[in-house]
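Look over both lines:
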Amino acid sequence: MATTSDHELSIDANSLLSELDKGLRSNRMGEECEAIVRFPWLFTRYPFPILINSACLKLAEVFRNGSNFSRLLILKVIQESDKHLDKILNVDEFVRRIFSVTYSNDPIARAITLRTLGSISVIVAERKNIHHSIRNALESQDEVEVIAAIEASAAFAKRSVDFAINIYPKVMTMLSQQSTPTDTKINLLQVLHHSHYNTSTAIEVRQRLIQYLSTSFSEKFVCAILNTLTYISFSSLIQIPQQIQLLLSHFNEDRRKKVKISALRELRLLAKNTHVWTKDNVKSLLECVDRCPKDDSLLSGIMSILMELVKCPCLLAGEIDYLNEFETKIVSFCINVICNDYRNILLLSVCLCILTELSLHSTKILKETVKTVEKFINSSMQITESMLAKNTSEYKVICKCIVTLCNRDENEVVEPLKKCLKKVLLSEISSQWMGFVCETLCAIQNDSGDVQFVNELNAKVKKCCEDECSEDSLTKLFTLYFQTCNRLEIECSQDFLNYLNGKSHWFCYRLIRQAMRYGHHHVAHLLCEKLLSTASSENIHFWILSVSKACKAESYLKIGLSDKELEQRIIDATSLYVESLSALKAGVTPSNPLIFTYEYSKLRFKLLHTHILLRQACKLVRTSPAPAIASSAALSSRDDLMKCGVIVTQMRKCAKEFRSLADGYSDFYQTSFNADNDTLAHLQLLQHSCTIFAEAIESVFQSNRLSGLFVNKDTHLESNRLDLSLLTPPEHKKLINVCHRISRIVREELSTLSGDSVIGANQITTLLSMSRELLSIPLCTPRLFFQSVQATCIKLAISPQPKSQEFIITSCNTNFALKVEGVVVNGGQGCKVIRKVAKVILTVTTCLVTKSGNSDQLTKPINDGNVQLMSLVVPHNDYFQEQFLLPLLPTGVYMINVEASIIDENEAQWKTGPNVSISIKVVEDSTLK
C-alpha cells in the first residue's frame, strides 16, 4: 500500500483526482504505476459514486491501452476496492474497455483480463458475453490463461446461478480427462463449490466426485475433493450424515497423514451443524478416539470436533440415554489426559475446553472438573519460558477455561481453584506464567480487601521489581495488586516509586492507567509527576499535566474526613479540575481531539460542584431559619414545606442540578458509540447515582411529587435484592453497593421522615451522610478516557455546495433539492468493531435566519419558514445517500443543518453526529416581476 503525503491530505477530491490523472497520462512507467497504486486510498477517503465512476473509467482506459504490468496493478486496485464497485454508474462503458482486451493475441493479457472480470463479477454476474469468453478460455492451450479462466469461473459461479448450472458439465468433463494436470483439476474443484444452488445438480456432482475419490491416488486431489464435498453438503444441507461417515471412513482407512488431517478439518466444519449429527455419526467418532494412532495432532483434532459438538445443547436430543453414556466417556478420557499428560498442551487445552462446556450444565461434572484443574494448577509451577513461547495460544485457552469455571455460581465448588491460583502466584514460577496467572486472577470476580493476600502481593511486587522481571508481567502483577487492595496509603504509594527506579516511561504510563482504573489516584498522581519532565512533546506534556491534576483532585476525596475538612477538600478538588480542563484543552491535537476525556472531566467537575452546593444549602437550616412570614407564604403557595424557609428552594435547585447531571451523563452515553461495554456501564452507573440522589432530595423537599420514583422500580440497583452479575467489573461493585444502599434509605427512611411539614436535623444528616458515602467511592476511570478500542465515524458530503464561502442562491417559487451522501469510516487496521452501524438517521432542519424586507427585521430571528425532515437509510458497503426537497417559501437567508445519528444492530440509537450546515439565500424570481 502506498504511503500518503501531507499534501494529499490537505487537498480536495477533484484536485487529487486531477493529479492522479496526470500520472496516468505520463509517458514514464514509474509515474503511471505510482498513480495507479494510489487509487485505493482515494476510494477509501472519498467513496462517492461520481468520483469512483470517473476514476474507474480512467483506470479502464489505461487497462485497455497500457502494458501488462499496468493491467496487473489495476487488477490489484480493483481487488482492494471491491466494496466500491457497485458505485460505478457507467458499468457498460467500464466493462467495454476492459473486455476489449480479451481479443488480444497476448495470452498473458487475456489471463489478466479474465482475472479482472472475475474481480468485478459482483456487478457483471449475468453478462452472457463474459460467460462465453470464460468458457472459451477454459479450452485454451496456454496454462496461465486456463488458470485465470478457472479463477473467473469460480467468481462468476458464486454470484450467478445460470452460470454455475451451465458451467458444471464442462468442469466435470475436464476433470474426467486424463490429460488434465492434477493441479488444474484441484483448481477446477473451486468452481464446483457453488453447485449447491440446485439440489439435483448438487447430488449429481457429489456422486461423480465420490467416484473420482475412489479412483484417485493423488494426496492433494483427495484432500481437495473432500473439501469440495464438505462445502457442498454444508451449503446445501443435503446428505450431511453420509458426508460425516465418508470423512470418518477416510480418516480410519487412509494411512496418509495429510488426508487424515484434511478429514478432521472438514469434520470440524460440519460439527457446527450439530443438530444434523446422528447417533451413528457420534458413535463412529468416539470409535476414532480409540483407533487413533499415537499422534497428538490427530487426537487433538478429534477432540476439537467433540468440543464443537458438546457446545450445542441439541446434540442427540432424542437419545438421552446414549448422550449420558457419551458424556461419561468423554469426561473420563479428558480427565485422564489432563492428569497424566501435561506435556501435550494442545490436547490438554482442548480437553479442558470440553470439560468446561460440559460443567456448565452439570454440577457433578463441575466438581470433577474443578478437582482435575486443581491438579493441573498445582503442577503448573514446572512450566518454563520455552514451553510458554511454543504454546502461548494454548495456555491462553486454558486460562480462559479457568476463568469460566471460577465465575460459576457455585462458590463453594470453585473456591479451591482461586486458592490454588493465589498459591501458585506467590511461589517461584516463570515470569511469563506469572503474567498469565495474574490475568486469570484479574478476570475472576474477586472480593477486594483480603488483607493477607494484599500483604503477600506487596512482598511479591517488591521481589519481582528487584529481580528485574519483564515489564509486561510486572504490569499484570501491579494490576492485580491495584484490583485487590481497597485504597493505597500515601506511604505505600511512595514505596512504589522506589520500586520503579530504572523502569521505562511507557511502563509507568501503563501503571497510571491501571491505578486510575481501580481508584488509586494518589499513586497515579505521583507517577504523573515523575513523567512530566520527560514528555517528548508539548501536547503530551499538557496531557500528562491534565491527568496529574485530575488524580490529585480525586486523591483529596477519601474516607475519614470531618464534614468541614471534606467540604474544603471538595472545593480544592474543583479548583484542580479547572486546571486539569485548561491543560486538557492545550493538549488537544487534530489527530487526538480528546473529546471523551474532556466531556468526562467536565461532568465530574460539575458533579463535585453540585455536592458543594448541596452542602452549602444544608447549612441554611442553621444559619437561615424560616422568617416570620413563612407561614403566610406557604399558605399562599399551597406548599406546607415553604414554612421551612429558603432551604426548601435551595435544595430544590440542588435536585434540579443532580437531574441535569443525570441528563448530561445520559446524553454523553448516547454520543459514546465507540465506547467499550464497561465504559458504557460506568457512565450508566454515574447517571443512576445522580438520579437516585435527586430523588433522595425531592423525597424530603418536594411535597407534591409523583409516586413513580426511580428508586421504587424493581431493578438490580434499586430493589431490596442486590443482584451483582458475575459479568459486572470489580471496579463497579462499590458504586453499585452504594447506589443500592441509598435507594433503600430513600424508600425506608427518608420517605417516612418526610411525612412531617417541618424539615428536621435527621433528614439533613441523612442527606449529608449519603453525599459523603458517594464521594468516598474512588472514581474508577473508564478505558475510553485513555484509549478507544473502536474508531467508527460518519463523514457527510452535501451538494450543492456554495462557492467561495458565499450563499447558494435559489428561487422562492421552487423547492430546494438537497443531496446528502455519507460514508461509514471504521478506523484503521487493528481497530476492533464492538458494535456495527446498521442504519443511519439523517435529520435536515431549515431555519430562516434573516428575512428580506425592512432593515429592522434583518437582525431578528424569524420563527416561520422552519422545516424538519428525517430519513432512515441503510448503508450499503459503508455508503449511503438520500435526497431531500425543502420548501423555502419566505425570501431571505436560511441556515440548513444536516445531522446524522447511528442505529446499531441492536436497534439502539446513538447521537454521534456529524453536523453539517450550509447557507441558502432565497430570492424572488425575476421572471415573475
In short: The radius of gyration is 35 Å. Confidence is low (pLDDT under 50) at residues 1-10, 854-863.
